């Protein structure tokens, strides 16, 4: 049970600034996902909250208390690592119990808490096994169990699902969400996978080059991206960005860009829409179809349509059209501007 | 192992015959030494020397173990055991701790210390033997176990081996332990040490034999026959001048000198090979 506050948090490695000042107030029990491409500083930020990296300037507060100078163990946090970081020579039970043993918890209580966590995670029959005798999903669960038994204030997840196969990832995603909700523990979760971010987050932080471009609820971020980077990163397939030359006077964008999501575009017979395109190829995914086309000047554009609809021929000359309110305008620095 | 050799023709048998002959050639001197340790002195010195064991096995070995020539062989075996164990365990202890310091801590002069350790690789015992003798004599450690053990304990090789192993241990493991509340030495005891046990076993075998086979250093600093180690003691048993050598007892001593290393190698074979081949991660 904890609130977290990051106050103008900055981090530099030597002369290289990795995080340029991030501010956020995290409410008790909130699930926050930090998402961004590799190298954007998201893991560094998590490690600063954990106490594994020092803070260059600014402050990390947990429950209103500055913890910049506290060791990880004194912050009452638990962390799940990408490669799980299980102790290879210890049984599952000992792995989960290690933190409690160091904290000199009485033996009966350790056994009780480990059993309870094992039950929650369906690990009861594996308690005597070594990590190498477990599957990837089971190791992931042990890593979660190790976090749970300590009853921490905060869960920190560093890309915990990226070593799992696709199916298991979906399953574990749901389990993590359920677990966090039922335990009511504040969670910080780092990922580069926007689907994980969209599905897990109460609020998400979209990081771009050490800056938090946008902080908000997933749907809010999707509907209302504040920057071109966010518009391009969140949503799949990625937003189409068109410049003045691509648009050829259809919409006035000056030196900025116009962003339009593929799902907001429709194909129509030539002459009936706003822009003329040549269809290059189509990807029929069943439920949906992605149509890759190019404009008259060669710029690529993607259209997403329902899988039930008719497939256009490759090479067909068609128009695209859109609703005026689906358009997102960005200035030349990528900042969102109000629709004209 | 079936399937590794597909053809089981004449070539298969020929290679085996070749190998058996090779083993016999290598084993023959040891066999001769064993035969010599079971016969009487006149039987050895009158050619041809017998090729099959005689009936003096118990007599010769008893006289070697109990009285020996300069000192009882049992005493020399004990000295060698203390020295070999001291060197092996001391080397492991010192090198695992220095590797831990070098890999896991950022301290001023870390690189300098690393290179200093590296430099000692170029200074085997024989090269630094005179100054080392000076120092040991100055500390009054001649004819003592500490004099036999301490100068040989520092080991760059073992430090490197542990350093290489520690560097393959994922950083997240140390971080997870830190989050779990383990201080550095706790991490070392609870996690690093158990993970290194196959490496430790492999090193123990190598270093035990290294310590057991030391010749020059004990020869130099043990003047008291009661402090002789067995490997150098064999040489001390050779007669000077016109004395008659007691070959059966000397040969019995040689055979006895081989027994402890063989026991160590055989009993730790499994761990030893695992330690060299894979490291448990």
Low-confidence stretches of chain B: none
Strand content of chain A: 25-35%
List the quaternary state of the chains.
heterodimer
Q: Give the largest chain-chain interface (CB within 8 Å).
A: A-B, 22 and 18 residues
Helix content of chain B: 55-70%
Shape label of chain B: globular
Write the CATH architecture name of the largest domain in chain A.
3-Layer(aba) Sandwich
Number of helices of chain B: 15
Q: Strand arrangement, largest sheet of chain A?
A: 6-7-8-3-9-10
CATH fold-type name of chain B: MetI-like fold
Strand count of chain A = 19
Q: Considering DSSP H and I runs of 4 or more, what fraction of the residues of chain A is helical? A: 25-40%
Provide the gyration radius of chain B in Å.
Answer: 24 Å
The CATH class of the largest domain in chain A is identified as Alpha Beta
The biggest beta sheet of chain B is recorded as: none
Rg of chain A (C-alpha, Å): 24 Å
Q: What structural category do the secondary elements of chain B indicate?
A: mainly alpha
Mean pLDDT of chain A equals 90
Biggest sheet record of chain A: 6 strands, mixed
Number of domains of chain B: 1
Quick overview of this protein structure:
The complex is a heterodimer of chains A (340) and B (281). Chain A has 340 residues and is of the alpha+beta class.
């Amino acid at each position: 049970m904890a609130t977290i506050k990051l106050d103008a948090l900055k981090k530099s490695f030597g002369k290289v600034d990795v995080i340029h000042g991030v501010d956020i107030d995290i409410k008790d029990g909130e699930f926050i996902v930090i998402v961004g491409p590799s190298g954007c500083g998201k893991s560094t930020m998590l490690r600063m909250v954990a106490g594994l990296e020092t803070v260059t300037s600014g402050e990390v507060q947990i429950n209103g208390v500055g913890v910049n100078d506290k060791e990880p163990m004194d912050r009452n946090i638990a962390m799940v690592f990408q490669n799980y970081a299980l102790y290879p020579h210890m049984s599952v039970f000992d792995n989960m119990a290690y933190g409690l043993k160091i904290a000199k918890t009485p033996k009966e209580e350790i056994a009780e808490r480990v059993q309870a966590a094992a039950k929650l995670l369906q690990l009861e029959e594996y308690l005597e096994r070594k990590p190498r005798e477990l599957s990837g999903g089971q190791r992931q669960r042990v890593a979660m169990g190790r976090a749970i038994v300590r009853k921490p204030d905060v869960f920190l997840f560093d890309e915990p699902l990226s070593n799992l196969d696709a199916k298991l990832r979906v399953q574990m995603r749901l389990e993590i969400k359920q677990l966090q909700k039922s335990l009511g523990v504040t969670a910080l979760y780092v990922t580069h996978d926007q689907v994980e971010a969209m599905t897990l987050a109460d609020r998400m932080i979209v990081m771009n080059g050490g800056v938090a471009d946008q902080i908000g609820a997933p749907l809010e971020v999707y509907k209302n991206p504040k920057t071109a980077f966010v518009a391009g990163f969140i949503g799949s397939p990625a937003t189409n960005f068109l410049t003045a030359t691509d648009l050829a006077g259809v919409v006035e964008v000056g030196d900025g860009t116009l962003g339009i999501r593929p799902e907001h575009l429709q194909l129509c017979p030539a002459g009936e829409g706003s822009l003329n395109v040549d269809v290059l190829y189509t990807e029929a995914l069943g439920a949906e179809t992605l149509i890759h086309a190019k404009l008259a000047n060669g710029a690529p554009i993607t259209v997403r349509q329902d899988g039930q609809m008719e497939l256009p021929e490759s090479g067909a000359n068609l128009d695209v059209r859109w609703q005026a309110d689906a358009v997102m305008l960005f200035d030349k620095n990528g900042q969102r501007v109000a629709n004209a | 192992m079936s399937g590794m050799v597909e053809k089981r023709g004449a070539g298969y048998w020929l290679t085996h015959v070749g190998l058996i002959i090779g083993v016999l050639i290598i084993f023959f001197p040891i066999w001769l030494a064993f035969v010599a340790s079971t016969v009487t002195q006149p039987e050895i010195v009158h050619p041809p020397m017998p090729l099959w064991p005689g009936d003096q096995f118990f007599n010769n070995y008893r006289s070697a173990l109990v009285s020996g020539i300069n000192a009882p062989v049992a005493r020399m075996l004990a000295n060698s055991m203390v020295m070999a164990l001291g060197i092996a365990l001391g080397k492991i202890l010192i090198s695992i701790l220095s590797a831990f310091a070098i890999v896991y801590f950022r301290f001023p002069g870390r690189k300098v210390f690393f290179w200093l350790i590296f430099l000692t690789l170029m200074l085997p015992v024989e090269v630094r033997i005179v100054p080392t003798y000076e120092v040991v004599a100055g500390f009054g450690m001649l004819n003592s176990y500490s004099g036999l053990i301490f100068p040989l304990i520092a080991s760059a090789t073992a430090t490197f081996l542990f350093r290489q192993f520690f560097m393959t241990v994922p950083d997240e493991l140390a971080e997870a332990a830190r989050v779990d509340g383990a201080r550095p030495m706790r991490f070392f005891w609870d996690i690093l040490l158990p993970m290194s046990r196959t490496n430790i076993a492999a090193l123990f075998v190598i270093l035990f034999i290294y310590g057991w086979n030391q010749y020059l250093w004990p020869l130099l600093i043990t003047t008291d026959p009661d402090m002789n180690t067995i490997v150098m003691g064999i040489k001390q048993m050779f007669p000077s001048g016109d004395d008659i050598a007691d070959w059966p007892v000397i040969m019995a001593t040689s055979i006895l000198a081989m027994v402890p290393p063989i026991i160590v190698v055989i009993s730790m074979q499994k761990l030893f090979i695992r330690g060299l081949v894979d490291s448990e991660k």
